[in-house]
């Protein structure tokens, strides 16, 4: 008899293992697809801005690719919680609609046990979130700003190609692009003239046409001007020189100023750097409250992933003949509101109005209590799923409000008729 019971336990564990594997596989596909979809949608908005930046670049494809890759960690940090929430809701909803949930519950499998695969996925995503939020995002943000700074310090090659006024160093160039055979003209050049670090005037150069060439030995672009004139204006607006020329050359490769060192912004610091600077004595340019609020927000976003399955599973439950589809909508609104709440708590902490940890972890504590209540009601008490109960409560309140309004309207109508009599 004991051996028979042992075989029963082994068989039960095998069935539960297959169920967990099934749910894990279904949830992984849904969550992985949502992560990719969310990143693509979020990147579309930024692509327009990136294209505007790289239009004057001499390497637009390479610079745009570098900027997109640098932004991926930032958008992954947004997409992962949303994908975990919606992927869990979708998986549980499908499991409910196909009556597989009813069969599992009838076989004695608890809702707590069926939540384990989602917790396993949340653990994997949390480990990835530590790497993404703590290191890849700060480094990617700095790399994006570095590439953007380099692109803006472009040579006049691209500037003239676009036919717009563009400043490179102390010169402002304009070149028309209506000439045949890739010629440039008319050409206008404004150049500030300085002496001992002080601007003493400016020089104007005009030419009917010109041609861009590249020096073989240095690869620097050179603007070969045709016939034209040059004027030098002193600081008192007095003409100092008027020179006509039959040809002239201007080297246009501007010296690229290196971008500042990383760490001017708390969002560029890794989590380990934020932790070391929690007393504000290592990086004095960053406020201590701002530093600590950013650190607490990153930790809280990782902890949030362990709480979401206990909210998403009840949101995805559907019993009865009329299943509800409100889970996805409620999940999106709920998570967006939560993210905005965390950002607001961070701003309060960074401004010093409250301790940096209080608002963020107070919100996480309230969320934990809410998750415990809603999951306990779904897993250990008989009744309708939370969203179904909420919908019924809203319908009941609407009926009560209509009833009250009808009573008020009847009383007002009776009063008016009494006055007429």
UniProtKB/TrEMBL annotation:
<keyword id="KW-1003">Cell membrane</keyword>
<dbReference type="Pfam" id="PF03739">
    <property type="entry name" value="LptF_LptG"/>
</dbReference>
<feature type="transmembrane region" description="Helical">
    <location>
        <begin position="72"/>
        <end position="92"/>
    </location>
</feature>
<feature type="transmembrane region" description="Helical">
    <location>
        <begin position="299"/>
        <end position="317"/>
    </location>
</feature>
<feature type="transmembrane region" description="Helical">
    <location>
        <begin position="22"/>
        <end position="44"/>
    </location>
</feature>
<keyword id="KW-0472">Membrane</keyword>
<keyword id="KW-1133">Transmembrane helix</keyword>
<keyword id="KW-0812">Transmembrane</keyword>
<feature type="transmembrane region" description="Helical">
    <location>
        <begin position="118"/>
        <end position="136"/>
    </location>
</feature>
<dbReference type="InterPro" id="IPR005495">
    <property type="entry name" value="LptG/LptF_permease"/>
</dbReference>
<protein>
    <recommendedName>
        <fullName>Lipopolysaccharide export system permease protein LptF</fullName>
    </recommendedName>
</protein>
<feature type="transmembrane region" description="Helical">
    <location>
        <begin position="354"/>
        <end position="375"/>
    </location>
</feature>
């Amino acid at each position: 008899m004991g051996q028979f019971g042992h075989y029963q336990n082994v068989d039960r564990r095998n069935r539960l293992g297959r169920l967990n594997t099934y749910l894990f596989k279904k949830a992984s596909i849904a969550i992985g697809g949502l992560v990719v979809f969310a990143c693509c949608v979020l990147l579309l908005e930024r692509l327009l801005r990136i294209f505007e930046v790289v239009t004057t670049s001499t390497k637009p494809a390479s610079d745009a690719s570098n900027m997109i890759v640098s932004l991926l960690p930032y958008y992954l940090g947004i997409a992962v919680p949303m994908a975990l929430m919606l992927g869990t809701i979708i998986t549980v909803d499908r499991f409910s609609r196909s009556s597989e949930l009813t069969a599992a519950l009838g076989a004695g499998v608890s809702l707590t046990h069926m939540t384990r695969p989602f917790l396993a996925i949340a653990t994997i995503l949390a480990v990835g979130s530590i790497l993404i939020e703590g290191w890849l995002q700060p480094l990617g943000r700095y790399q994006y700003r570095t590439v953007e700074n380099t692109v803006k310090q472009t040579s006049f090659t691209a500037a003239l190609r676009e036919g717009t006024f563009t400043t490179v160093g102390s010169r402002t160039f304009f070149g028309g692009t209506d000439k045949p055979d890739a010629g440039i003209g008319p050409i206008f050049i404004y150049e500030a003239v300085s002496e001992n670090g002080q601007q003493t005037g400016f020089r104007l150069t005009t030419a009917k046409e010109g041609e861009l060439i590249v020096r073989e030995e240095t690869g620097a672009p050179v603007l070969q001007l045709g016939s034209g004139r040059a004027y030098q204006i002193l600081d008192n607006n007095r003409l100092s020189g008027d020179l006509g020329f039959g040809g002239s050359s201007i080297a246009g490769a501007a010296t690229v100023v290196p971008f500042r060192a990383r760490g001017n912004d708390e969002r560029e610091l890794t989590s380990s750097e934020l932790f070391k600077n929690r007393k504000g004595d290592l990086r004095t340019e960053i406020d201590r409250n701002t530093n600590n609020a950013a650190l607490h927000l990153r930790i809280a976003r990782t902890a949030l992933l362990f709480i979401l399955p206990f909210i998403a599973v009840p949101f995805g439950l559907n019993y009865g003949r009329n299943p509800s589809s409100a889970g996805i909508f409620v999940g999106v609104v709920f998570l967006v509101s939560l993210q905005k709440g965390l950002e607001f708590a961070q701003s309060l902490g960074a401004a010093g109005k409250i301790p940096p940890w209080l608002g963020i972890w107070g919100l996480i504590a309230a969320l934990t209590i809410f998750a415990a209540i809603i999951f306990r009601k779904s897993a250990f008490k008989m009744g309708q799923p939370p969203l179904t109960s909420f919908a019924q409560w809203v319908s009941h309140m609407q009926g009560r409000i209509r009833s009250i309004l009808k009573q008020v309207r009847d009383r007002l109508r009776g009063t008016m008729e009494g006055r007429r009599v």
